[in-house]
């Protein structure tokens, strides 16, 4: 069930984020997002990463397992946020913060999240 929730989250993420992006860019990023879902779900289940208040993955413990993968995920998220910000005439930071709110709502019990004030908590 946990894996299914992760895949569902990825699907919802892809739909929300790519609505405003070009098709070629969106497809490449969407494919990379899908490839990383199992690893991200694993890290979240282990409590190693959480969703910060800027819309990015962040390590919440001392272990930084799969750091290259987390960096790649955040880089792709930033690309999407940049495209959305450009189309909406806003900042990347505002897009990321809006996405963080969505991610909090989609998070499953036990996931680490960061509130607007920067405090980490488990849902």
Write the layout of secondary structure elements.
Blueprint: H1 2-18, H2 23-46, E1 49-51, E2 57-59, H3 67-88, H4 92-106, E3 112-114, E4 120-122
Parallel strand pairs: 1-3
Antiparallel strand pairs: 1-2, 3-4
Mean pLDDT rating: 86
Distance between the termini: 18 Å
Q: How many helical stretches?
A: 4
Helix content: 55-70%
Low-confidence stretches: 1-7
- Lateral arrangement of strands in the main beta sheet: 2-1-3-4
Number of DSSP E strands: 4
Strand-pairing-aware structural class: alpha+beta
User: What is the helix/strand order?
Assistant: HHEEHHEE
Which range does the strand content fall in? 5-15%
Cα-atom Rg, whole angstroms?
14 Å
Give an overview in words:
The protein has a 4-stranded mixed β-sheet. The longest helix is centred in the first third of the chain and has 24 residues, at 23-46. Helices cover 63% and strands 10% of the residues. The chain is built from 4 helices and 4 strands, in the order H-H-E-E-H-H-E-E. Residues 1-7 have low confidence and may be disordered. The protein is an alpha+beta fold and 123 residues long.
Short recap of the structure:
63% of the residues lie in helices and 10% in strands. The chain is an alpha+beta fold and 123 residues long. A 4-stranded mixed beta sheet has the order 2-1-3-4.
């Amino acid at each position: 069930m946990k894996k299914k929730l992760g895949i569902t989250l990825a699907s919802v993420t892809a739909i929300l984020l790519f609505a405003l992006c070009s098709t070629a860019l969106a497809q490449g990023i969407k494919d990379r997002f899908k490839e990383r879902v199992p690893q991200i779900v694993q890290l979240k289940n282990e409590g190693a990463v959480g969703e910060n208040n800027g819309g990015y993955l962040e390590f919440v413990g001392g272990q930084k397992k799969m750091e290259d993968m987390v960096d790649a995920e955040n880089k792709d998220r930033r690309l999407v946020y940049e495209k959305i910000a450009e189309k909406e005439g806003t900042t990347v930071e505002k897009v990321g913060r809006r996405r963080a709110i969505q991610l909090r709502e989609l998070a499953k019990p036990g996931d680490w999240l960061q509130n607007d004030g920067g405090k980490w908590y488990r849902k």
